[in-house]
Amino acid sequence: GIDRFNKMEPKQVPSVLILPLPAQGHVSSMLKLAELLCLAGLHVTFLNTEQNHQRLVKFTDASSRFTKFPAFRFETLPDIPSDIQNPENLIKEMFAGIDRVIKPAFRELLISGREKAEEWPPVTCIIADGVMSFTIDVAKEFGIPNIAFRTISAACFWAYLCIPKLIQEDELPFKDGDLNKQITCVPGMESFLRRRDLPSFLQAKEFSDPSIQIVHTQSSKSMSSSAFILNSIEELENPMPSHIGTLACAKVYTIGPLSALLSSKKNTTSSTSLRAVDKSCLTWLDSQQLKSVLYVSFGSIAVVTAEQLLEFWYGIVNSGKPFLWVMRPDSIIGERQIPEELMLATKERGCMVDWSPQEEVLEHSSIGGFLTHSGWNSTLEAITAGAPMLCWPYFADQQINSRYVDAVWKIGLDMKDMCERSIIERMVRDLMEDRKDEFMKSSEKIANMVRSCVEEGGSSYRNFERLVEDISSMSL
Ligand code: UDX
């Protein structure tokens, strides 16, 4: 509790600096971690880029929500370019911007923090997004620990850490086009991992591919962090968390789903949206039958071509299911807006919004299925809500997430990169009609397990308590 720190000398007060990659899926989970650490009584500084901070303040109650914590403050860093319409470029551009802009500003902030110690307790621990591994060198320079927070699953992180092994076993880069070839050298995944299930950055044609280089460099650099925080659930991902800890000789705190852990400690939802949320869809959902609606959303980065959009649209309409579809205005390659005839026809069959209150949507009783791109936050939210998934992974960690949903947890179907209307129709019917009871039962079972692991005595609850203790006593 908070009183424990009041007795401590001001210089000893644990003061955490949190730095997410400036992207929705990363800001979401790390802001929830910030709120959890505030509730535990720690001093927290949350670093966002200027633009993302303005969006957060504009579209959520973040400014009021956080001002009630005396030991919380936002600080902002300069913006970096991110061209969403070209995700491959996005990665390269983002990392160039991080080195050029974010790194010097981050270091500057730590230096000035030391000089103004009487205003705010100097930082005693950095919790940085695992892809911002430059903070490790800066942490060493200031003699403080650096904890790497991964916004992806333990399985995906473990696959990244196995890159040297994959190369040594001649599995990377792919020698031919057989994507169904089994991958047997990633410990713990021997029985179900195929080439096509590896994170997309590893499915490169040659090893010099920049995205494979970035992932390899970031993951191996992050190995020298003092500890790791995983937004995941031990019971769902064992033995990956312990493999990671063993390989890195460091502590691993598996404390997810952060959304569920946070709502188990406070009764209101905590929006982290960087876009305007259209809540009208909740009223539309109220008018729908129990577990009858297909919710469609591909996260904040994935884009589709106009052709793919039509395949999805006809497949979903021909499935006969009412649907709630998130159509981010920037999500169709080459188009500035949704085709008009699509908008009109959709009105009768479903509801379309630019951006939904997704966590509330997934918890709504009329949701019977979730057509998702398998982003890790969306996957955790569906697991927590017990919503069966139809997975259309786009890039990054999504390929391995979709494989786990289908082949390991058996709470949905993995479409992979297929996008053809008759297959889409058949898989929607499979998920929400033919095998509905099977998927509802397995999803409900896992949702109950998740609920218990974030309640007192559960694995994530206990690991979070241990994290707060260790940060406070610096015994990382
Ligand atoms: C990115 C990567 O794509 C993903 O693979 C990685 O795991 C995290 O970073 P993103 O693509 O945005 O994330 O997907 P996801 O991880 O699912 O995060 C999206 C977040 O936006 C979720 O928390 C979801 O609840 C929220 N969301 C999405 C909304 O609030 N409204 C929407 O309409 C859609």
Give an account of the 3D structure.
- It contains 21 helices and 13 strands.
- By secondary structure, the chain is of the alpha/beta class.
- It has a 7-stranded parallel sheet with strand order 3-2-1-4-5-6-7, with helices on both faces. The protein has a 6-stranded parallel sheet with strand order 10-9-8-11-12-13, sandwiched between helices.
- Bound molecules: uridine-5'-diphosphate-xylopyranose.
- Residues 23-26, 28, 151-152, 273, 297, 299-302, 326, 355-356, 358-359, 375-378, 381, 396-398 line the site of uridine-5'-diphosphate-xylopyranose (UDX).
Furnish the topology, listing elements before pairings.
Elements (H helix, E strand, L loop, with lengths): L2 H4 L8 E5 L4 H16 L3 E7 H10 L2 H6 L4 E6 L9 H29 L9 E5 L4 H9 L3 E5 L3 H8 L1 H6 L41 H13 L4 E4 L3 H4 L2 H9 L2 E4 L3 H8 L14 H7 L6 E5 L8 H14 L3 E4 L13 H10 E4 L4 H6 L3 E6 L3 H10 L3 E3 L6 H11 L3 E3 L6 H14 L1 H19 L4 H15 L3
Parallel strand pairs: 1-2, 1-4, 2-3, 4-5, 5-6, 6-7, 8-9, 8-11, 9-10, 11-12, 12-13
Helix pairs in contact: 2-12, 5-6, 7-11, 14-19
Bound molecules: uridine-5'-diphosphate-xylopyranose.
GO molecular function: quercetin 3-O-glucosyltransferase activity; quercetin 7-O-glucosyltransferase activity
Keywords: Transferase
Protein name: Glycosyltransferase N-terminal domain-containing protein
